[in-house]
Amino acid sequence: MTMSSPATTAPASPILGPSVTPRTIDAFLRAVPSVDEVGVAERAGALSTRSVKRESKRAALDLAIRMCDLTTLEGRDTPGKVIQLASKAIRPDPIDPDIPPVAALCVYPNMVPHAVEALAGSGSGVAVASVATYFPSGQAPLDIKAGEVAWAVAAGADEIDMVINRGAFLSGDYLRVHDEIVAVKEACDQAHLKVILETGELSTYDNVRRASMLAMAAGADFIKTSTGKVSPAATLPVTLVMLEAIRDFHAATGTAVGMKPAGGISTAKVAIRYLVLLAETLGSHWLTPDRFRFGASSLLNDLLMQIRWLRDGHYQSPDYFTKD
Fold first, then answer.
1. Catalytic member of 185, 221, 260, 302
2. Of 88, 93, 224, 302, which is the active-site residue?
3. What is the CATH number of the domain that holds 106?
C-alpha cells in the first residue's frame, strides 16, 4: 500500500504555484543537480582547517552566542527548568553584562506559555521557539500536526521547528511532504518556520539536497539538519550541501532562506568552523541570527568558557556555568 497525499487541501505553494501535482514536484526535483560527494567532503574538510585570528575570535564567539537556539527537549522538562533556562537565555553569564543574549529559547509546545511568561518584559529580543508536528518522528495526521502548530503559535511561539515526513519523502511521495510544509506554514501565521530534514535518516547527500529544495519551495524560512534525536545529526559536509542548496535557491528565486545545524555541535571550536563554512558559501549577509542558528544545549557553556579564557587568560571549570 503506497502512501498518498493528505486529503486536506494545502494552500498554494509560494514557489510552484496554486496547483501543485506529483508531476510538478517531480519536474522541479529532477532539475536539482546531483551532489559531488567527494568534492563536498574535500571542501568541508579544507574549510574546517581555517583559523580565526585572536582579535576576531571574540566577535565570532559573541556572534555564535547570538545565533544560539538554547534548547531543552526532554520528557522531564518542567516549568521551573524552562524559567531557569529563560534567565540564561537573557543573560548567559550573570556576571558579565557584555555577553549578548541568545536568539531563541526552544521548548516543547506545552512549555511555550512558561517560556513566554519568563521572557516577557526582558527587552532581550529572545524569541520563543517550539518544536511541533509530532516531533521528533513526524508520524501523525496532518490535522493533528497543524493543530499543534496553531496551538503553540496562539500560546505565544515566535518560531516553529517542524519535522518533515521522512517516510513519505523516502517512498517518493514528495507531494505529501510539500503539501504538509505548506499547510504548516499557513498554520504558523506570523511565526517563522524552520523545517527539520532529519538528515541522518535521508541516507544520501542527493536526498538532502532535494529535501532542502523541496522545503524551501514549500515556504520554509529556515532549513534545519536534525532533531538531535537521531545519529548522525549535523555534520560539516551535510551542512555544506544545505548551504549550497540555499545559495542556488536564492539565485533562482531571490528568496533568502536561513540555515540551522543542530545536534552534536558542543564546542566553540566546532561552532566557528560552521561560521567559516557559512561565510565562504553564502557570504556576510548570512552572518546574522536572522539567517543562521545553532541548535544548542551544551554549546553555550563552551562559548562562555572561551570568552572567559580570552578575557582572563585561564579557563573556568565547566561546572562554573549553569547547565540549566
1. 260
2. 224
3. 3.20.20.70
Nearest to 265 by CA among 281, 277, 255, 257: 277
260 is catalytic: yes
Q: Is residue 51 part of a domain?
A: yes
- How many domains is the chain partitioned into structurally? 1
DSSP letter assigned to residue 17? B
What is the C-alpha separation between 105 and 86, in angstroms, rounded? 7
Q: Which of 161, 179, 221, 302 is catalytic?
A: 161
Cα–Cα distance, 62 to 74 (Å, whole number)? 27
pLDDT per residue as tens digits for the range 162-218: 999 999 999 999 999 999 999 999 999 999 999 999 999 999 999 999 999 999 999
Is residue 248 part of the annotated active site? The answer reads no
How many residues in the chain? 324
Do you find a cis peptide bond into 232, omega within 30 degrees of 0? yes
What's the CA gap between 235 and 238, in Å, rounded?
Answer: 5
Q: Is residue 252, in this structure, part of any structural domain at all?
A: yes
SS3 at position 13? strand
Judge whether 161 counts as a catalytic residue: yes
H-helix segments, the chain = 22-30, 37-47, 54-66, 79-90, 112-119, 142-154, 166-170, 174-188, 205-217, 236-253, 268-282, 299-312
Q: Is the whole model's pTM more than 0.85, yes or no?
A: yes
120 domain residue, yes or no: yes
Domain that holds residue 261: 29-309
The answer to whether the CB of 166 falls within 8 A of the CB of 205 is: no
Q: What DSSP element (H or E) covers 192?
A: strand 192-196
User: What is the DSSP secondary-structure string of 297-321?
Assistant: SSHHHHHHHHHHHHHHSSPPPGGGS
* Phi, psi for residue 113 in degrees, rounded to 5: -60, -35
Is residue 55 in some structural domain?
yes
- Give dist(CA 67, CA 293) in Å, integer: 5
